[in-house]
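From the shared-data thread, chain only:
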Amino acid sequence: MTTPPDAQRLVEQLMADPGSAESRALLEGLLDGRVSSLLEKLQAVEAPRLLPVPAEVRGFRVRLDLSGAEPPVWRRLELPGDLDLPALHGVIQSAMGWYDCHLHRFRTGSDPRAPGFVTSFDVEEGEEGTLEDGVRLDQLVAQQGDQLWYEYDFGDGWEHRLVVEAVLDEPPAAPRCTGGRMACPPEDCGGIGGYQELAAWVRSGYDAAHLPAAFDGPAHAHSWLPDDWDPDAFDPARVDLALAAAAAEPAAVTGELASLVEELERHGSHQLREVLARPLSHGPTDVGDEQAARLTGTYRTFLDVIGDGVMLTAAGYLPPAVVEQLADRLGVSEWWFGRANREDLTFPVAHVRTAARALGLVSLRKGRLSPTAAARRLGADPQALRCHVVSRLPLGTSDADRQAGWMALAVAGSGVPAGQWRGEVTLLLHALGWRDGDDRVSPPPAHSPTLDVLEHLAGGPGVRTHHLQEVDPAVAATARAVTAPR
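Structure, as tokens:
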């Protein structure tokens, strides 16, 4: 427990001149108990003052400033008065862009040294005080000019001041951001001083002369600094998305995908959580017979063309006549350049064959590609074939393929149009730590065997996926059927 300032001064006085008459009198008082009540009072934890809960909930327009930042780093927020402190903590984290990986504390009044609240973690650690749980914002502020202090990361010491700019008769349904300036400092950068050095280096165009002394060199700094961090950037729409995602509950997902959500959260990224919190991520997992037939059309066509089986060429490819027939029936010939009759030169057809084999629909034995028993049993039943595809996803045995597959399924299941899948998957893989193999800095490509299957379900190789900008509920439902807990 921190020693109160008055008690500290008494101790310092005794230590400075223990032989003085005043100090001897104080010591005598301590020995006979005459000043024990004074010390007990000084050492008591002062409780924050709480206002009565108002009869009607109002809202507050507040400005949240990061103390000491120059130029100012701030956010303007509209908040409902009945927001409790743990929820307000989440709002501040999302609005500023912090990763919520350190301790925090709220304090009341105009003085940052004023009485504060303790968190559940503090209580578990044996600290005493007023618990923040259940304490509402409108019990701490009531009128224009009222203030609240928020400290995050006691090591770096990020102090924030929340000031009420206006009282709103109608509270917002949910917290929202209406303005702001500058990007949030990177986590663990050494407080305001370290942040200012980093910002100066980035603003200089990464000039080596401005490289902070904490780094061994530019490569070390780039590997530590969040990708594309711009100290002067601020996007209120992005903050609103983060606030909405923080308030929304993510869809329940299967264990492996849930572990990836937790991994990203530990590293401060809420991107995957935001995807799973989208409304369509909570949607159904079943589709009608007509939609099942459409979704499985690519694989049913492939199985129909190979029939009871085909012998591959000496080089291990489908015969040219079979490739040409597949290209025609799958619609590849309508957009493919050149004559689509060689599998090694017609990758859309090659991808269908690869996916069909990975899905357990065809097998290769002694140079002959044949439908499996499962394919013979399910090929005429689109619903059963769709369920079989669901049971096999995600594809791949490597960590890279499986994680890319889970990201593709999460994105597709959230209702994002197929034309936007690759961009979102790339960002998620980058957050997971994957990088381009050439420079180990650039974001990785989104390609994966699972993404191929999803694109086949969305329209097949006859459709240029980047042209698909409409939500496909049937594809989204199929992706969710994979990610939903079984």
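The chain has 20 helices and eleven strands.
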